[in-house]
């Protein structure tokens, strides 16, 4: 698995129920665009606002829909045994990878985090992508990632949603350097090109929900060694990532951007998140006009 992977939004109706037709339409759009992977029950998909049954429902529905790309399922929880349950479910329905963010709310040291991931890795067979997102959960250190990767062959990679080139560099050099099949993805649109330059494998980036053509253009140009083109597209992507700074949450930013671009997904977030208003939407509209035309 390499390239552009999309962490899906979860479409909701006004009554906060899951909007299945909008989900089907969105996945079809992304597959036609040519993305390399689709990731359901992601942070962008508001997984912490979903019940266990809803997570399983979405995982099963996504497996039906994603037919021409890698399929990833988020199985994170602060309850280790729920992670096992969700990861086994992802394995049973035929997902290609489970993506597991660290436990949140309770601060844990590296030994506790190692034990958490070890228990899951030992009780499941599906390849696992670690998800480092220190703004929302316990951070994963380079030494911990390396320890897990070298101990468990089914821990297959990491998504790095961390605003640190040095951290990503060290993971690539120290972990991927010793285990060549270990995959390293950025979770930040603005770090896509530099992650590829450092030797990473791609990105799992939320703006690809509404502008996958820019991410795919970066990827294609880099693979074809058209580096000036890659740089130009990466600069557009960096500017596009300013969308996150305009809204009160990344969920609001992405769904407002999708609304501006004409997607049928409704601008609805489940509480406790709230959608921003017309003023923010207008700012996002101006940004998208500048970057996407």
TrEMBL record:
Record-linked Gene3D superfamilies: Aldolase class I
Keywords: Lyase, Schiff base
Gene Ontology molecular-function annotations: 2-dehydro-3-deoxy-phosphogluconate aldolase activity; 4-hydroxy-tetrahydrodipicolinate synthase activity
Claim: Metal-binding is one of the keywords in the record: no
Predominant cellular place of this UniProt entry's protein: cytoplasm
CDD domains: DHDPS-like (cd00408)
Coiled coil residues, start to end: none
Superkingdom classification of source: Archaea
Binding-site list for pyruvate: 44, 204
Catalytic center residues: 131, 159
GO terms for biological process, alphabetical: small molecule metabolic process
Quaternary structure and partners: Homotetramer.
Name of the protein: 4-hydroxy-tetrahydrodipicolinate synthase
Biological source species: Thermococcus thioreducens
Lineage: Archaea, Methanobacteriati, Methanobacteriota, Thermococci, Thermococcales
């Amino acid at each position: 698995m390499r390239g552009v992977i999309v962490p899906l939004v979860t479409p909701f109706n006004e009554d906060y129920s899951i909007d299945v037709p909008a989900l089907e339409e969105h996945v079809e759009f992304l597959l036609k665009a040519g993305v390399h992977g689709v990731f359901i029950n992601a942070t962008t998909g508001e997984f912490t606002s979903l019940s266990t049954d809803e997570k399983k429902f979405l995982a099963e529905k996504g497996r039906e829909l994603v037919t021409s790309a890698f399929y990833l399922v988020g199985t994170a929880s602060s309850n280790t045994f729920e992670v096992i349950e969700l990861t086994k479910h992802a394995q049973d329905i035929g997902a290609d990878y489970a993506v597991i963010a660290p436990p949140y709310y309770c601060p844990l040291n590296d030994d506790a985090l190692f034990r958490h991931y070890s228990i899951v890795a030992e009780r499941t067979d599906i390849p696992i992508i670690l998800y480092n997102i220190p703004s929302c959960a316990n951070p994963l250190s380079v030494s911990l990632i390396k320890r897990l990767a070298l101990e468990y062959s089914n821990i297959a990679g990491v998504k790095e949603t961390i605003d640190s080139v040095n951290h990503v560099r060290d993971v690539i050099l120290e972990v991927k350097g010793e285990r060549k099949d270990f995959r390293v993805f950025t979770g930040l649109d603005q770090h896509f090109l530099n992650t590829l330059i450092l030797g990473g494998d791609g990105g799992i980036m939320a703006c690809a929900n509404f502008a996958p053509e820019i991410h795919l253009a970066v990827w294609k140009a880099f693979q074809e060694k058209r580096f000036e083109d890659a740089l130009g597209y990466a600069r557009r992507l960096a500017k596009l990532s300013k969308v996150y700074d305009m809204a009160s949450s990344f969920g609001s930013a992405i769904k407002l951007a999708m609304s501006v671009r004409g997607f049928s997904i409704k601008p609805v977030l489940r509480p406790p998140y709230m959608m921003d208003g017309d003023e923010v939407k207008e700012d996002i509209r101006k940004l998208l006009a500048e970057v996407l035309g």
